[in-house]
Amino acid sequence: MRRSTPLARILGAAALLCAAVALGATQAARAGTATGAARPDILIPLLAAGVLAAGWVLAVRAAPLVEPLPAAPARAAIPAVLAAVRRDPGHLAGALLFVWAPYAAAAAAYAGSGSAAGSLICLIAFFFAIGTSPYALRDLLGRQLGSAERLLREDAAAGRVHAVRVRIDRAVREDPPGPAATGIRPPRADASRRLELIPGTPDGAPPPVGFRPMSGSGFRTLTGDKHLAEAAAQLVGHEAWLCWPARWKLALAAPTDRRFPLPAALVTDSGHVVWGRTFEEDWDRYLRSGAAPEHPTDPGLTAVPLPRPARFVPRAHGRGLLALAAAFLTALPCLLGLVTPPVALFLAVSAGLLVLGAGLWISGSATRADPRLWTVREQTRP
Questions:
Q1: Confidence of residue 264 (pLDDT cuts 50, 70, 90)
Q2: 138-169: per-residue pLDDT in tens?
């Protein structure tokens, strides 16, 4: 991961704006324009978006690498104010552009030609965008913390949480075993990521606690994964308070996961907060036994979110950018008016699907982040 610089943010925002102008131009009425004519009103903003996106990539790659934050003296008090995860306007804008790209491409190629196939494709793509956009708006503009995390935040503000001192030891990624290890092809499974925390207890060498990303669905799943990756890049080696809600039994009143996850927050001595969860195998020995007693929180202290690194990670996002370039080249004959309307419709729909696929890949690969962050292991159980 690399730092987010003002130049990179400006170039990225300008690229998104140009892409939005291009998508908007596909809906603009052009009286007197023949079907299959060149569309410079779409081509020029797309070219500008491509140039700006290339500049954004170069600016990110020229930025310094993200380094661990400097260590701070141990804090005896736990802040009562725990800040939520920062919203990401660029992520929201990108998500909406990717969702609407298939409809915009089909509408640009259809261009009022009256084709029944074109009309049907536009209608399908339109309802897909209409049905998906509310989820993006809800997950990326709504509350960034789930109900379980908000319970912990309320308990901290009320004055008491369960807490234990820990040291952030390493970031671990567990990959599912491959066919060579098992002799069979395993079911599709995603890698598991966590921070390993070493408790600061005097009783020998206790096993590490696994601090995992926040749970969620849809776009919010990516928020939790990216939040954990940012912590892995900046907080390894730091001392912190691992906090659970004072009303932890209430958080388990309606379990939806057999691992019985509990919301947790890492409150570092540097004054930052990282949101996540712990499974029963980790919190049980602290909460049920009383090894993590209730601690008062200090209303005069605030824990703030971590600085946000740049979104672009070369190893993770390369394929997505190649897919975007392929989408532009696929749509280029349509935008130059070099093909017949049926071929233009086919190429435009293909380009729109490539853009959608690139968006899914870029969003998903953001959770993998920089491979150098993780100590890679193979999962030893299903």
A1: very high
A2: 777 777 888 888 999 999 999 999 999 999 98
Which of 362, 299, 271 is closest to 70 using CA atoms? 271
Q: Which of 240, 85, 195, 68 is nearest to 149 (CA)?
A: 85
* 3-class DSSP string for the chain: CECCCHHHHHHHHHHHHHHHHHHHHCCCCCCCCCCCCCCHHHHHHHHHHHHHHHHHHHHHHHCCECCCCCCCCCCCCEEEEECCCCCCHHHHHHHHHHHHHHHHHHHHHHCCCCCHHHHHHHHHHHHHHHHHHHHHHHHHHCCCCCHHHHHHHHHHHHCEEEEEEEEEEEEEEEECCCHHHHCCCCCCCCCEEEEEEEECCCCCCCCCEEEECCCCCCHHHHHHHHHHHHHHHHCCCCEEEEEEECCHHHHCCCCCCCCCCEEEEEEECCCEEEEEEECHHHHHHHHCCCCCCEEEEEEEEEEECCCCCCCCCHHHHHHHHHHHHHHHHHHHHHHCCCCCHHHHHHHHHHHHHHHHHHHHHHHHHHHHCCHHHCEEEECCCC
On whether the CB atoms of residues 165 and 244 are closer than 8 A, the answer is no
The candidate with the shortest Cα–Cα distance to 50, out of 1, 11, 107, is 11
